[in-house]
Amino acid sequence: MTTLPRIALIHALKHSIAPIEAAFATAWPQARLMNLLDDSLSADLARDGELTDAMTERFLALGDYTVATGADAILFTCSAFGLCIEAVARAHAPMPVLKPNEAMIERAVMMGTRIGLLSTFPPTLVSMPPEFPASVHVVPKLAEGALAALDRGDRAEHDRLIADASRSLRDCDVVALAQFSIAATAPLVAEATGRPVVTTPDSAVEKLMKLLAAKA
C-alpha cells in the first residue's frame, strides 16, 4: 500500500459528498479521495421499496471498478444499502469496505442503550435499525420533508425540520444522525435534544484511519 492511501467514496445522494470530504479534510487530509456518484441508486430504491438482486449486482460492479482503479479502501456513504455493501465487502475481503453507518453504530452503543436514529430518507429507517446490536433499543425518527427541502436548495428549512424532529428523541441516551447529508446539523440537534450526537462521516474517517494504519 502506498503511504498516501486511496479511498473510494461511493455515493447514492449528491448531498453526501461535501460532508465526507469535510470530515477527511479535518481528520485525514493526506488521504487521496475518489468520488463516484450514482444518484439513481437512491431513486430506484425508493421506487422498488426493497433491496433487489439487481441492486446488489450494481453495487458489486461499483466495487469492482474502484478496486481496478487502485483503491485501498471503499466507503459507501448512503445508509440504506447495507446488504448490498456487505456483498461488496465479502467480494473484496480483506480490503476495508465500510458501510457508512457501521463506525457510528459502534460509537453510539458505547454511549448508551437507548439510541435515537434520525433520518431524512425513509428506507434508511427500515434497513439500519437491524444493524444495531440486540442489546440496545433504537428509536427511529424521520424528519419529514427535510430531504425535499435540501433537494430544492433550502438548507435552512432542511436544518429546521431536522432540529424540530429531533426534539422527540430527548429521552434517548444519544442521538445518531443516520446520513452523511445531515451530519452538519449535529450542533442543532444537540441543542434541541440536550443529548450527545454522533455522526456518520467523522466516525467513518476515524475507523478507516485505524484500519489502514493496521494494514500499513
How does this model look, in words?
- The chain has helices spanning 17-27, 40-48, 53-68, 82-92, 102-109, 124-127, 146-151, 155-166, 186-193, 200-215; strands spanning 6-11, 32-37, 73-76, 97-98, 114-119, 137-142, 174-177, 197-199.
- With 216 residues, the protein is α/β, with parallel strands linked by helices.
- The strands form 2 sheets. The protein has a 4-stranded parallel sheet with strand order 2-1-3-4, sandwiched between helices. The protein has a 4-stranded parallel sheet with strand order 6-5-7-8, sandwiched between helices.
- It is globular and about 45 Å long.
Give a quick precis of the structure.
This protein has helices spanning 17-27, 40-48, 53-68, 82-92, 102-109, 124-127, 146-151, 155-166, 186-193, 200-215, and strands at residues 6-11, 32-37, 73-76, 97-98, 114-119, 137-142, 174-177, 197-199. By secondary structure, the protein is α/β, with parallel strands linked by helices. The protein has a four-stranded parallel β-sheet with strand order 2-1-3-4, with helices on both faces. It has a four-stranded parallel β-sheet with strand order 6-5-7-8, sandwiched between helices.
